[in-house]
Amino acid sequence: MKIRSKVFPLLAITALALVGCGGNSNTARKGSSPTTGWAYNDPSMGGYEVREAQEQDLGPNLVFIEGGTFQMGQTNDDIYYDWNNVTRRVTIDNFYMDENEVTNVDYREFLFWLRKAYPNYPQVYRNALPDTNVWRRELAFNDPLMKNYLRLPQFNDYPVVGVSWRQANDYCIWRTDRVNELRLIEAGVLKYDPNSQFNTDAYLAGQYEGLVNKNLPSLSSKDGKGTRRVTLEDGILLPQYRLPTEAEWEYAAIALIGNTFDERVVERKTYPWNGHSLRNPDPKNRGDLTANFRRGRGDYKGTAGSANDGYSKPAPVRSFWPNDFNLYDMAGNVNEWVLDVYRPQSSEDVEDFRPFRGNVFTEYLKKEDGTPMVDSLKRLRMDTVKSVNRYNYRKGDNRNIKDGDLGTLLGYENENGSDSVSTTNKMYYPGNNKAKKRPNEGMTSLISDKSRVYKGGSWRDRAYWLIPGTRRYLDENESRDDIGFRCAMESLGDRIPKQTRKK
Fold first, then answer.
1. pTM for this structure?
2. Residue in 107, 65, 384, 56 with CA at minimum distance from that of residue 244
3. Cα(121)–Cα(125) distance, integer angstroms
4. CA distance 348 to 325
5. Quick one: which H or E segment has residue 475?
6. What are phi and psi of 200, to 5 degrees?
7. What does R_g of the chain's alpha carbons equal in angstroms?
8. CB 23 within 8 A of CB 499
9. How many other C-beta atoms are found inside a 10 Å radius of the C-beta of residue 80?
10. CA 258/CA 248 separation, integer angstroms
11. What is the pLDDT of residues 339-374, one digit of tens each?
12. Given the DSSP bridges, would you call strands 227-228 and 216-217 parallel, antiparallel or unpaired?
């Protein structure tokens, strides 16, 4: 079998125009409203500004993933009998995903900017530092990796590890802001301001205090000569980077796009490549392992002189062949965080379109005059939505909806013999962590609303965990030496772009 990766030609990136970005200048739409007859983009008729819909510009290192339907879940034997990912047909929307995991040099850039932007808040920098102590083992000499893996240039292109789920999310927020700030600078709207930390949401809310070069002309001003800041409607700013959902990650990993013909899947997959073997059958690379994983007890890389996968720890990203979506290391090397909260029965509970468990709906806090509230770091303050009277949701925090909330209790009896609802008889209750005498009092499960899914298998794992349908979980504040992450981004609209990746 030859890995059928689709290679698309790279297109030249043109300079950003004042009202557009990248190769897709969002030009003003001509004509008038089909419902009112008033002209678009005409100061004499109110100045309602409308841009033509164009292809979404690609963020750095992203690959376009065309969505579709697939059988999500574990299609192979469940050797652990967890039954925590029963197969179910779902549909995934178009999205973008990083070609490879976030590397050490990428994450050090994040740390560099945090230290530069918040010199008076050293705790911000310290909170983002990976836990390098994850390399330590009680009966192994891993101190050299603990001291050198993150910092030395020899490890620049290795996937960052020791990063918790929360730190990975903070990186995604920071990356969104850096990419959008650069787009506004290249569009001539902003000047680089070393004394101000750009935040996308704060800028859109009018709370940005950095250097402005030249705002966009406002067609709705009274004299037609006014200016305004960039809005989402201008098409310059990109959507936020984020972790992929579990369904998106699994869909992108299995990459059935290379095995379909006229909507028929002509060959199923066990791994991100075709066939059931872990070795490459192509004559040019016959016998080479297709991923970085542990082959057996004590065998992490093979025999000296002809070591097979050749890596006894994480390998540099892109060391192995990509799958049919041109994504590297979707099996092996390091496990990857995904966005979802873990529940054993999520596959039976979630929606069949864009399935996801973990929604916490929030809203911006505002002052009495209606202006947004910002914190000491110039970020908009947010709070969880309280109970609401809506048909589509009733509360803000939905991490435990249908699984451990008041509607799905096991019905444990209280000490007084009654079966009334209490916090100690929830299906997934981690206990009272604040109790000093009896820590975790009332615990009913190790699973909680802070348990996050990770997938993909790693250099420490056997081949079973390379199967995209397998899943495990870890607390969102913890980290390990075999878990990393990559970012994803929404694809706006349903257009399939001509340019599908960007270096």
1. 0.88
2. 65
3. 8
4. 27
5. strand 472-475
6. -60, -50
7. 25
8. yes
9. 10
10. 17
11. 999 999 888 889 999 999 999 999 888 887 777 888
12. antiparallel
150, 462 Cβ separation under 8 angstroms: no
User: Residue with structure tokens 């916090």?
Assistant: 423
3-state secondary structure of 502: coil
Distance, C-alpha 194 to centroid of its chain: 28
101 vs 484: CA distance, rounded Å: 7
Residue 272 contacts residue 330 (beta carbons within 8 Å)? yes
In sequence order, the 6+-apart residues with CB closer than 8 A to the CB of 271 are 278, 290, 291, 331, 466, 467, 468
The CA-CA-CA angle for residues 391, 394, 395, to 5°, reads: 155
Distance CA 453, CA 335 (A): 10
Give the rounded percent of residues in the chain with a pLDDT score beyond 70: 87
DSSP 386-450: -----SS-S-SB-TTTTTTSGGG---PPPTTS-----GGG-TT---BTT-SSSTTBT---S--TT
Helix, strand, or coil (residue 70): strand
| 3-state DSSP assignment of residue 473 | strand
- 21 in Cβ contact with 187 (< 8 Å): yes
pLDDT band at 10 (very low <50, low <70, confident <90, very high): very low
**Residue 8, both tokens:** 């698309």
Count of helices and strands (H, E) across the chain: 7, 16
- Those residues whose C-beta lies under 8 Å from the C-beta of residue 415, and which sit 6 or more positions away, are none
CA dihedral 143, 147, 153, 154 (to 10 degrees): 0
Closest CA to 268 of 98, 464, 467: 467
User: What's the whole-number mean pLDDT along residues 444-464?
Assistant: 93
pLDDT in tens, 96-139: 999 999 999 999 999 999 999 999 999 999 999 999 999 999 99
CA distance 96 to 489: 5
pLDDT of 300-348, one tens digit each? 998 888 777 789 999 999 999 999 999 999 999 999 999 999 999 888 8
Type of residue at 57: D
- pLDDT at position 292 is 95
Tokens for 452, please give them: 């996050």
How many whole angstroms separate alpha carbon 177 and alpha carbon 120? 20
* Element holding 107 (H helix, E strand): helix 104-117
216: DSSP letter: E
Strand pairing of 451-455 and 95-98? unpaired
